[in-house]
Structures are given as C-alpha cells and as structure tokens.
Design goal:
The chain is mainly alpha-helical. It is built from eight helices and five strands, in the order αααααββαααβββ. The protein starts with a helix and ends in a 16-residue tail after the last strand.
Length: 197
C-alpha cells in the first residue's frame, strides 16, 4: 500500500506518541510540584520513599528516579529541609542511613495527583485494562534487560504464580494472599513484594 511507503515504521510512531504523552505528564507534574515548592524529581523521590514505610537507602531512591546519587542527595537535602523526609540509622545495618517520610511528607505523597490521570481518563475500562497489561509487560522486559531499577511488580515476585489457570478470568495466583488473580489485579508497586531472583 502507498501508506506503507510514505509512513514511518509503526514502532517509531508509537515511540513518538508515548514521548508526547510523557511530556504532558511531566508538565502536569511540574505544575503540581511548583505549587508546593518542589521539583518533579524531589516529588518523585518523596513519593517513592513514602511508599516504603520501612525506609529506603539513598542509592535505591537515585536508581528509582534514574539520576546520579549526588543529584538524589541534593533532592533529599531539600526534602529534609522542608521537613518532608528524615534520615535515620538502618535497623539492619547501624552504619547505613535510611530515608523515611515524615507525617507531612506522607500526607503530601498520598494527596499527589497522578500526572497520567488526565491522559488515561478518556479510555474505557477495557482499554485501560489492555493498556495496563502492556505496561506491566514493558516494565518486566525493561527489568530483564536491566534498563530500569528493580520494581516491586507482581511478575517479579516469588509469591507470583503465572498462568496457573489458563483460559479463566483469573489465570494467575498470589501465594502471599492465597488468592487467584486477574490481569487487572497485578501490581506495579506491591509492599509485600519479595524478589524472585
């Protein structure tokens, strides 16, 4: 067909579309962050730390944000100055320091709007489920290729049993809660995650 000759390959067009959506989400994140006196990177680190009440080390926060440790350290210092994070000794290693969110930081992280919310709200529930499955698949592939920091996803958890009941509405199983799971139940960030590796 003529369009096959004059149109860029599908993967390039898809990548361009995702880039545009990410730019919109980043702009919304900037607007929210500026309204509370933070940068998107600081807000991202705050939300990451707040989702891990047991505490997290600076290295993990830097990996999550995809930034150098020195840059993460600057962000943490700002968050500490604003009384949103605190540093304390790691209970498992007294020489190490962990980051924990303060009540003020936890509240802000909990109330933070999803920057992709306005982007996906126009999709039907079926479309959202399909997109969610694809997002889980992409995260898994990025982890396997070591292009993303380890995530606490169901598909990388030792409790996850994949496709144990094929052809059903709940093909997967979580051994942690002893319950079948549908694709829509898979988590991207599960607090009970235990790495399968």
């Amino acid at each position: 067909m003529k369009f096959d000759k004059i149109t860029e390959p599908l993967d390039r067009r898809l990548a361009e579309g995702l880039t545009r959506l990410a730019a919109v989400a980043r702009q919304l994140d900037w607007q929210t962050a500026e309204s509370v006196g933070l940068s998107p990177t600081q807000a991202d680190i705050l939300r990451f730390v707040a989702s891990r009440p047991e505490g997290i080390r600076l290295t993990a926060a830097a990996e999550h944000a995809g930034i150098r440790k020195a840059t993460a350290s600057e962000a943490v210092t700002t968050l500490e100055t604003k009384s949103m994070l605190r540093k304390q000794a790691d209970a498992t290693d007294g020489r190490a320091i962990v980051l924990k969110a303060t009540p003020k930081g936890e509240r802000l992280a909990r109330e933070w709007p999803s920057s992709f919310g306005p982007i996906i709200e126009g999709l039907s529930e079926d479309e959202q489920e399909l997109l969610y499955r694809l997002v889980i698949k992409m995260i898994r592939q990025l982890q396997q290729r070591q292009l993303i920091a380890p995530q606490r996803t169901c598909v990388s958890c030792r409790h996850f049993r994949e496709n144990v009941a094929p052809g059903t509405s709940t093909p997967h199983f979580c051994a942690f809660v002893s319950s079948p799971m549908a694709e829509r139940h898979l988590r991207i960030d599960c607090p009970e995650h235990k790495s399968a590796a």
